[in-house]
UniProtKB/TrEMBL annotation:
SUPFAM superfamilies: PLP-dependent transferases (SSF53383), Winged helix' DNA-binding domain (SSF46785). The keyword Oxidoreductase does not apply. SMART domains: HTH_GNTR. The lineage of its organism: Bacteria, Bacillati, Bacillota, Bacilli, Bacillales. This is PLP-dependent aminotransferase family protein. GO terms for molecular function: DNA binding; DNA-binding transcription factor activity; pyridoxal phosphate binding; transaminase activity. It comes from Paenibacillus agilis. Its cofactor is pyridoxal 5'-phosphate.
Amino acid sequence: MIDLTILLNEKSEEPLYTQLYQYIKKEILSGKLTAQTRLPSIRALSSHLHVSRNTVDLAYQQLIAEGYVLSRARSGLYVIDLELETLPSSHSNNMTRLENRVQDQPAIQYDFRYGDVDAEHFPFSTWRKLSNQSLQQNQRMLFSYGDPLGEHGFRSEIAKYVHSSRGVNSSPDQIIIGSGIQYLLGILTGLLGATDNGIAMEEPGYDGVRTIFKHNGFPIHPIPLDEDGLNIHKLYESKSRIVYITPSHQFPYGMVMPLAKRMQLLKWAADQNGIIIEDDYDSEFRYVGKPIPSLQGMDTRQRTVYLGTFSKCLLPSLRTAYMVLPPDLLERYNKQDFRLYDQTVSQIQQKTLELFMSNGHWEAHIRKMRKVYRQKQFTLISTIQKLMGTQATIVGQDAGLHILLRVHNGMDEVELIQTAEEEGVKIYPVSPFWAQRAQAERSMVQIGFGGLSNTDIIEGVQSLYHAWFKKR
């Protein structure tokens, strides 16, 4: 329910109820009051506007009579979807069409959204205990904005973790905490300064990052992929001196950049005096082969910015990520007043995460979630292979929390998504990840599995099989 604020003219020759009716009608026609919006009750609106209940009732009756709103028993008045109202009709007909529309749209039962995580295995009791403990340690500390870089103890734990798990070489002073990768990239683009040479990005690549770069004035140079990742020859040809890359799990195709190509990329940075932005967004979840050290850890010339996040292994709602700056950019950060940016992650949350890591809960949680997601991924892939066989090709199954699926039934991306929704399944397009959308694969969709149970994954894939192959 919403509030309606209107200045009624009591001196006007037009009755107050007519003024109110005209105002609400205009709001509906302009789209400011959208379909299914619940109007205030007669008593609430009369009290809010300081008019009689009779005035409001007359205005509402006129709106009902003309088919702009409908009344639901014991619920209230709701704005009608005018796109469905092609012909004048009575109130009862309006209600029938609205109810039929709701019935015709199946509820989404299985949402294969990438970015959803398994909240059932989140250690709530441990987190609650550590959060309470962080509040008890130093209450006065919590009254301030905190260190712009992030709390030193938390950054120290991150430095230890990324060194042991990813080979990242850094001191706590090189680490900046922020509320998400996109926020940190906003800071980084300010440090780099927009250049005519722009930023090179994998094609396809993460559209959320591409948007950040564009909003900060950077031209984008899409670099095609080889089977083992970014085409280094095309990177040289682009003349760009900055490249954003996801080498541990290319987004969205999923390939892992091998050691030889990583060395080629580091040579490019040395040859071009370039900067590599390494986004290690879900490196914890690798299911095949041995882990390869981060580019940052292999970079003896310190030309790499390293990005990591807690969103995939804990919860996206924590909005906590980190960035490791090389010395040159750190010096620029300190000289250019970036320390005037207030810290965006709560001190309480930083302290809780620090305790979570220092007490050993973080690594234990990663080990547990790696098993959980490995099982979910196995369930997804084996069910697809069993039901669809050669009618679908799985792409990017070595790591991460999503796969891509090429479907060989003649449908394009839009048709695949629409027919899936008709069966109550939500899957997602891949075309937005291309800067040049005309080059996107025609019959490919993205399927995330982190937020679904194993049972839901099986039932969801069964519904997809029915939508794409059985109904044709």
